[in-house]
Design goal:
- Strands 1, 4, 5, 6, 8, 9, 10, 11 and 12 form a nine-stranded mixed beta sheet that branches. Strands 15-17-16-19-14-18 form a six-stranded antiparallel beta sheet, sandwiched between helices.
- Helix 4 packs parallel to helix 6.
- The protein is of the alpha+beta class.
- The longest helix is centred in the middle third of the chain and has 17 residues.
- 32% of the residues lie in helices and 24% in strands.
- The model has no long low-confidence stretch (mean pLDDT 95).
- Strand 9 and strand 10 form a beta hairpin.
- It has two domains: 257 residues, no CATH class; 121 residues, 2-Layer Sandwich (Conserved hypothetical protein from pyrococcus furiosus pfu- 392566-001, domain 2).
Length: 410
C-alpha cells in the first residue's frame, strides 16, 4: 500500500454543485442545519445532519438517523445529482477566504499508515464522537467528511498543483460564508504517478483537523477485515492534504465564568508573579508568542509571560495555550481540566475580539483571554514527539466543504 492513492470520487454534477455544497457536519447544531437546508433539497446537510429530516427532538445518534442519511445519499445518487467518476483520480482543491489562498490534494490515505503513526496525530479523541463517525461511515458505506492533513511543503507537488490549476476546474463556487471552493480533477496518468511517488517518499503526514474521522475510518477498516469483506477501499480514508506553508491557523481564545473567589485586584496581583502586565486602551490582539490579552472588568490588559516560566525542552508545555493554562488558569482560577470543566469555554478567532467582550459584558462570563495562534511548526513538533496538544489549541480557517467529494467503500 502507498501512503496515498487516487480514488473514484462521488461528487455533484457541475450544475448542482452549488445546490449540494454544505458546511462541515460539526460546525452546525441541528437547528442551524435545519435552517441552512430549508428549501434546499439537495443540500449535503440532509446526508451529514439527517436528523433535520426527522421529527424535532429525534436523538441525532439514533439508528434511524444514520438510516435516514443513507436513504438521502441513495436518493441523490438515484436522481443523478451525485455521480461517481468511472476510475480513480486525484483532485486539486483550492480554498480562498479574503486574500488567503491555499491549495491541497484530495486523495485517500492509508489506514495502515495512520495505525502505525506515519500519519501523525496531536489530539485525543472522544469515544462517543468516534462511535458516531463509525456508525455514519458504516451506514452510508462511504466517507463523506474529508480529514484535513498537512505536510512539509514539497517543490514537486507545488509544480504539479501549479500545472493543474491552469486547466478548467470541475467546480468554482462560493459557499454562503463567502469562501471560494475550486476543484480540478487530475486525470493525466503521469501526474497521478508523480504525486503517488512523491508523497510515498515523505516521512509522514500530519492530521490538522479530523482526528475523529480518521480514527473512525481505522475502526471501520478493522471491522470489515474481521468480517472478510473486500478491503481495498476501506483500507484508505478521504483526505485533503495541504502544504504547511499555506495553512492558516487562527487564535483559539478562552472565556472564564468566575474568578475562583478572587476579586479583580487580587487576580491582577497574582498574575504579576508570572507575567508582566500592562493596562491597554484598546483590545489586545497578541502580536507574538508568549503574549496574551486579558479582558476583565471592562478593561483590556496585555500579559507577557516571564522568560523563566517558558520551558525550552517540552514541545507541549511551551505552547501558548499551555503557558496560560499552567501559569494562570489552573493555579489562579482552579480549572485543572479544561476539557471537562464547565467554567471555561472557547471562542474561535474567526469571531474576533468583540465576541470576547460580548461574552464578558453580558455577565455570562467574567474574564476573557486572547492568544497568539499556534504555529504549524509547533503542531508538527508535538506530533513528532508523539505527544498531545491541549484541548482547543488550533482553529483552522477556511473550512473544507462537505459534499463536493466523497469516497465510496466497495
Amino acid at each position: 500500500m502507498t501512503l496515498i492513492a487516487p480514488f473514484a470520487g462521488l461528487r455533484p454534477t457541475p450544475d448542482h454543485a452549488t445546490d449540494v455544497v454544505a458546511p462541515p457536519y460539526d460546525v452546525l447544531n441541528t437547528e442551524e442545519a435545519r435552517q441552512r437546508a430549508a428549501g434546499r433539497p439537495y443540500s449535503f446537510l440532509h446526508i451529514s445532519k439527517p436528523e433535520i429530516d426527522l421529527p424535532a427532538g429525534t436523538d441525532p445518534f439514533s439508528a434511524e438517523v444514520y438510516q435516514k442519511g443513507a436513504e438521502n445519499l441513495k436518493k441523490l445518487i438515484d436522481e443523478g445529482i451525485l455521480v461517481r467518476d468511472a476510475k480513480p483520480f486525484y483532485y486539486l482543491y483550492r480554498l480562498k477566504m479574503g486574500e488567503h489562498v491555499q491549495t491541497g490534494l484530495v486523495a485517500v490515505a492509508s489506514v495502515a499508515d495512520y495505525d502505525c503513526n506515519r500519519i501523525r496525530k496531536h489530539e485525543f479523541t472522544r469515544p462517543d464522537k468516534e462511535d458516531d463517525r463509525v456508525r455514519q461511515i458504516d451506514a452510508l458505506n462511504a466517507q463523506t467528511g474529508p480529514v484535513f492533513l498537512t505536510y512539509r511543503h514539497d517543490d514537486v507537488v507545488d509544480q504539479v498543483a501549479g500545472q493543474v490549476a491552469q486547466t478548467p476546474p470541475l467546480y468554482d463556487l462560493s459557499a454562503d460564508d463567502g469562501v471560494q471552493h475550486t476543484i480540478w480533477r487530475i486525470d493525466e496518468p503521469g501526474l497521478i504517478e508523480t504525486l503517488t511517488r512523491t508523497f510515498d517518499a515523505m516521512d509522514c503526514l500530519y492530521i490538522a483537523d479530523g482526528h475523529h474521522r480518521s480514527a473512525a475510518a481505522s475502526r471501520v477498516s478493522a471491522m470489515r477485515r474481521k468480517t472478510g469483506e473486500p478491503l481495498a477501499s476501506a483500507d484508505y480514508f478521504l483526505t485533503v492534504i495541504f502544504p504547511d506553508n499555506q495553512m492558516k491557523i487562527l487564535d483559539y481564545n478562552r472565556v472564564i465564568k468566575d474568578l475562583n473567589g478572587l476579586d479583580e485586584a487580587g487576580l491582577l496581583a497574582a498574575a504579576r508573579e508570572k507575567f508582566e502586565l500592562q493596562e491597554s486602551d484598546s483590545p489586545v490582539k497578541p502580536s507574538r508568542p508568549g503574549e496574551f490579552g486579558m479582558y476583565l472588568g471592562g478593561k483590556w490588559y496585555r500579559l507577557t509571560i516571564r522568560k523563566e516560566n517558558i520551558p525550552t525542552d517540552d514541545p507541549v508545555a511551551r505552547l501558548d495555550v499551555s503557558l496560560l493554562q499552567n501559569n494562570l488558569i489552573e493555579p489562579l482560577l482552579g480549572i485543572a481540566d479544561p476539557r471537562r470543566d464547565k467554567r471555561i469555554d472557547f471562542v474561535g478567532g474567526i469571531r474576533g475580539l468583540q465576541e470576547l467582550e460580548k461574552r464578558v459584558d453580558s455577565g455570562e462570563m467574567q474574564l476573557a483571554f486572547s492568544l497568539y495562534p499556534t504555529s504549524m511548526a509547533d503542531l508538527m513538533s508535538v506530533a513528532d514527539a508523539n505527544e498531545v496538544m491541549p484541548p482547543k489549541s488550533t482553529w483552522f480557517e477556511p473550512k473544507l466543504a462537505d459534499g463536493l467529494l466523497s469516497h465510496v467503500l466497495d
